[in-house]
Specification:
Largest sheet: 2 strands, antiparallel
Helix content: over 70%
Strand content: under 5%
Order of helices and strands: HHEEHHHHHHH
Radius of gyration: 26 Å
Distance between the termini: 22 Å
Low-confidence stretches: none
Length: 213
Amino acid sequence: MKISQVEELVGITKKNIRFYEEQGLLSPERDPENGYREYSLKDVDELMKIKFLRKLSVPLEDIRKVQEKKLSLSICLEKQSSNLKSEIASIESSIELCDSIKDKYLDYSDFDAAEYLEEMRKIEERGGKFMNVSKTDVKKKKIGALLAAGVILAIILVYILFLLTVGVRDGVPMPLFLLIMCVGIAVIVGCVLALKQRLKEIEGGEEDEASKY
């Protein structure tokens, strides 16, 4: 069956399905004649399992281990249950901390953050968490994408400048000179568009979308 049919049967987007394939969690057969993916009922069943586990926030790596029989389903779920209980405890600690501060009716200018940061530290020592790890990961991915794009753009600009310098020196015909300029500009625009798309994916694309399942 086609991916659109799988999308309808499982209830997750094509982008998610492709993402799970990229992660090695799903390996549909390919039509030997045209190379197109051909999804089977087994693939649908596998996606159902992945969707269920992701809805429980089971990490992709743990799902991979379960598929490879390096981790049993029972141990996987026991581990996730422990993680969720830890998150509940952290949330409850955060709620208690918020309530204890708001009940004192402190003005922002009189608020002694150091005192409560120390209390946060003690909570974190007991296993509590206050930092949004997913946001931190998104920030790192954005920085990586920007750096990579910056390096590529710099290389392209240096290359264009080199060609233009050589062209001026050697008296390259104007049509060829303009062609070099147009190609360079097209490559730069393509790189910028690719960067924009990548940032969009990081912010709310494949990884974030798949994390909902």
